[in-house]
Structures are given as structure tokens and as C-alpha cells.
Amino acid sequence: DIQMTQSPSSLSASVGDRVTITCRASQGLGNSVAWYQQKPGEAPKFLLYAASRLESGVPSRFSGSGSGTDYSLTISSLQPGDFATYYCQQYFSFPYTFGQGTKLEIK
Amino acid sequence: QLQLQESGPGQVKPSETLSLTCTVSGGSITSTSYYWGWIRQPPGKGLEWIGSIYYSGSTYYNPSLSLKNRVTISVDTSKNQFSLKLSSVNAADTAVYYCARRVRIVGASGGYFDPWGQGNLVTVSS
Prior knowledge:
The complex is a heterodimer.
Chain A lengths: L3 E4 L2 E4 L5 E7 L7 E6 L6 E5 L3 E2 L7 E6 L2 E6 L9 E6 L6 E2 L3 E5 L1
Parallel strand pairs in A: 2-11
Antiparallel strand pairs in A: 1-3, 3-8, 4-5, 4-9, 5-6, 7-8, 9-10, 9-11
Chain B lengths: L2 E5 L3 E2 L5 E8 L8 E8 L6 E6 L5 E3 L9 E6 L4 E6 L8 E10 L6 E6 L3 E5 L2
Parallel strand pairs in B: 2-11
Antiparallel strand pairs in B: 1-3, 3-8, 4-5, 4-9, 5-6, 7-8, 9-10, 9-11
């Protein structure tokens, strides 16, 4: 199985900050990476796929980048509704696997 | 707007079979662009893909040790539903179980999950 290692596991930041979450895969993924946002008590919400393609309706302050084994999700200017847990997912090969999550908290 | 809704018992006894159904509304489960999947999340932990199914009945399962040979996913196109059965459950199977649509991506072997159902917490306890 492909292991997805996210860092950091948790992050404290303030409204307006720029934050970056990274995801490292145990092998190259050819950009087959998606990112999700999950708020407490809710299902995950899809944000972007193919490492950098933003889902329609997702604010442009969210962006993704990366290649090979290393990928990142950046939020350019944190808004109150962005404090949540974020997960990466690889769909390069079966079984699909997720990162362990990064909890973004208000400082 | 496509919506998915899980249904099933909230508690299952150890060694019994967990059964959940996902009802799809606002779209057809027979769309050729999508697979349909189950993902679970133990309390306070991360996400684990369980398996996916195409409307034709083709299935892909996670071969992980924790799920191996215990999972069956089926589809009922007449009801626009797909279902999960997990046999011989134990406490480690306690989780929120989500159903989701898996979007096929041209040029890729798989895809992402969107949208998701609200989730169904299943507790394994006697």
C-alpha cells in the first residue's frame, strides 16, 4: 500500500495567516492526489484533485501543488470557516489511502 | 444536486455482520462516469477506504489485514442504492461509515470522492 504522511499533525494559526500542509507519499503518485476538509461532526468535503485542480465553488484562497512524492495544500489567507482537519488522498493505485490528517486550530 | 444517505443499525454485536445501505438521490447510480464507495473513520482517527463498486457490479476492495475477506459491496440499480456488508465484526470496526461517489478521472487509474453522505456511526458492542 502507498503510505501518505501528512505534516504537521496539527497547526495553530490566526485569521489572515498563510498556511501550508504537506503530504509525502511512499512512492511517486503522478499528481493523483486529492485534498479534503472535515469539520467536527461532518463528512469530509472535497477541495481539489490532480494535486492542483480546484473543485468548482471552492474559494481561490485554497491551492494545491506538488509532484512525484511531495504535495501541499496552501490556504493563502485563513478565514474563520477554514479551521478544520485536512486530509490528502492518493488515487494512483489501489488501495486508495489517506493521510492521517492535519488539524488546523485557531491561535 | 446529488445526495447520498446511509442507513442501517447503529450497533452490531461482535462476530455478527454489519449491514449498511446508501441511497442515492438527485442522480442515477448507473452513470458511467462514477463508481460508488464506502469509507470509514474510527472515532478520533483518520479515513480508511473500504471498497468501491460500479453500477455493473464490478467491485474493488481494500485488501488490508483489518478488512481482508470480510467485505461485500453490492448494488441495486432499481432502487438507486448500494450496500456494504462487513462480516465477523469486532471492536476495531467501530467507526463512522460514509458512502460517497467516486469520480472517475480521465487518464488516471482512480479518482476522488465527492459528495459524501453524512455518515452512520456503527458501534460494535455486546
